[in-house]
Amino acid sequence: MSFVLLMDGNKPRKYGYSIYFEVGENWGGVNFGGFFFVQKNASAHIKCHEYGHSFQNLILGIFMPLVVTIPSALRYHYRNYKRAQGHSLPPYDQFWCEGWATKLGNKYYKG
Ligand SMILES: [Zn+2]
């Protein structure tokens, strides 16, 4: 994925020990271990949160997809669906692995 974005003229940026790319508009972010992807002009909160997922990846290893990535992705799409129907949603970080990612990002990112 990073390779495709590089070929497409996207600049890789550094965030702590991670490399990230900014791509697309208004969708949030996604983490793949040492790399993450966020929307263009992503807030400090989004970047810090995705950075936190990098540390979950280090801690959980091969269990990461099962424990965090897949549940988070399903929840992300479910929330978009509920929002489109006009439902109000609980805070994003209320889901355990999302709140944990934000905490880890805040703990380990030394701007
Ligand atoms: Zn997340």
Q: What can you see in these coordinates?
A:
- With 111 residues, this protein is α+β, with helices and mostly antiparallel strands.
- The chain has one domain (2-108).
- Helices cover 51% and strands 14% of the residues.
- The chain is built from four helices and four strands; from the N terminus they run αββββααα.
- The protein has helices spanning 2-7, 44-60, 64-84, 96-108, and strands at residues 13-15, 18-22, 29-32, 35-38.
- The chain has a four-stranded mixed β-sheet, with helices on one face.
- A hairpin with a 2-residue loop joins strand 3 and strand 4.
- Helix 2 (44-60) packs across helix 4.
- The longest helix has 21 residues, at 64-84.
- The two termini are 26 Å apart.
- The model has no long low-confidence stretch (mean pLDDT 93).
- It binds zinc ion.
- The site of zinc ion (ZN) has 5 residues, from helix 2 and helix 4.
User: What is the element string, with H for helices and E for strands?
Assistant: HEEEEHHH
Uncertain stretches of 5 or more adjacent residues: none
Overall helicity: 40-55%
Query: Outline, from the CA principal axes?
Result: globular
Beta-strand content estimate: 5-15%
- Class of secondary structure makeup: alpha+beta
Largest sheet: 4 strands, mixed
Q: Give a list of the ligands.
A: zinc ion
- What is the CA-based Rg, rounded? 14 Å
| Distance from first to last alpha carbon | 26 Å
Mean pLDDT: 93
Transmembrane segments: 58-78
Keywords: Membrane, Transmembrane, Transmembrane helix
